[in-house]
Amino acid sequence: MTYPLLALTVAIFAALSAQAQGVPPAATTTVPQQQRATDFIVAVVNSEPVTNQEVMRELQRAKQQLAQQGKTQVNPQELARQVLDRLINDKIQLQLAKETGIKVDDAALDLAEQNIARQNQIDVATLRQKLAAEGMTVSQFRAQLRDQLSLTRLRERDLEPRVRVSDQDVEQALREQQSSNTDPASMEINLSQILIAVPENATPAQIAALEARAKRALERARAGNDFVELVREFSDAPDRANGGQLGLRTADRYPLLFVEATQALNAGDISALVRSGAGFHILKVTEKKSAGLPATAVTQSRARHILLRVTPQMTEAAARSKLMEFKKQIIAGKDDFATLAKEFSQDGSAAQGGDLGWTNPGMFVPEFEEVMNRLAPSQISDPLVSRFGVHLIQLVERRKSALNPREQKEALRAQLREKKLDEAYITWTRDLRGRAYVEMREPAQ
User: What is the Cα–Cα distance from 17 to 339, expressed in whole angstroms?
Assistant: First the structure.
């Protein structure tokens, strides 16, 4: 579950993350001078005040996050109400955490601070410099971080034990998924196509030649040839630049002809030849799932990497420099990625030339996976820092892979648990709010 205001890269660091990715921050997080000069109490929570400055600061961060998500059309009054509501709930929960003995020591704070720095691809000293530029002292930042960690521990302690997903829950959801497979409005599919276009006034001989061409493409697709390459070679459709993908949508938004041709197919399967007014179609089921349920296929990545661990003898800066030099040598054709990995990588994959094999989403730490997911096949990343050291990543290839029955059940169990946690959080928050004394005063300005 993603608890409100709980990512350890706290909202303060939305700007830092954006800068790390080359995106200009939407706005500064500092509070304008005139707002600092006119502070007042907006609400009282069990004798603890919520001030106008607090609301304005959180409102600014909320606007910044929404802007980075492309959401610019927001109601200012409604957003301010939501921000104040979150602040009140957080204060109630922090008071409960303190009363029930939850403590966050300095070692945990240090580790969280280091993780935030790594996620922004900077060191702690640079992080603190950026904080100062944003108008926040180190002590203010660490106090906010301590609150976030306290809230996380409280919610994990009080909410996690409340949620259980039984085997019966999973089986029931699977039955519902199977029963909805016959309803086009509840089934989502993503198809890729090869279109051999047939001109409107084509002669029988032309049609026969085009059909023979389509059959050759179909044979190669079913033989396991890369579908994207076949699209580039054969397809006459405008979507060829996108690998022929038509997009994930409910089945009722696809032509009935396409739905009927792929209804009995699983993810990864190829249809028979389909004839329409436009020509001959070869359809590949890229993804198929019931709306609101986990996909039955995932995008797998095969990558390799070179890992240099940070030690007193090998600083982070030195590791970055060395890996950047490796990248230049590989791109120039002077060296080979696998050869360098075997010689220099300090990971268990070194003997395999750094090859990490085929992996599903979520198998790597977030900072590694985020960079890997942005790479195109054969592309090499710049050096990046994770909790394990400094990496150089090359994406070898990607593919869509169907989940086996056990993996589908586990994905469904995780989704059901997330839904139950969300429901439990709402009920828990409402209960705490009902037992607290909250006095609303002047609106935030």
Answer: 34
CA distances (Å), origin 290, targets 26, 190, 197, 294, 328:
37, 12, 31, 8, 46
> Is there a domain that residue 416 lies in?
no
Residue type at 374?
R
φ, ψ of residue 320 to 5 degrees: the values are: -60, -45
Number of domains in the chain: 3
Of the pLDDT bands very low, low, confident and very high (cuts 50, 70, 90), residue 349 is very high
Of 290, 325, 357, which residue sits at a domain end?
Answer: 290
Residue 343 sits in which domain range?
297-401
State whether 150 and 188 are in the same domain.
no
**CATH number, domain containing residue 143:** 1.10.4030.10
Please give the average per-residue pLDDT across 295-308, as a whole number.
Answer: 86
Domain boundary among 130, 159, 188: 159
The answer to whether residues 85 and 146 belong to one domain is yes
Give the CA distances from residue 382 to residues 15, 106, 226, 341, 433, in Å, rounded to whole numbers and listed in that order.
21, 33, 28, 15, 48
On the question of pLDDT at 89 being above 90, the answer is yes
pLDDT tens by residue, 268-296: 899 999 999 899 999 999 887 766 666 66
Tell me the pTM.
Answer: 0.57
Edge-to-edge strands of the sheet including 48-51? 48-51, 41-45, 438-440
Across the beta sheet with 245-250, the strand order is: 245-250, 187-197, 279-290, 274-276
Cross-strand partners of 248: 190
Kind and range of the H or E run holding 141: helix 138-159
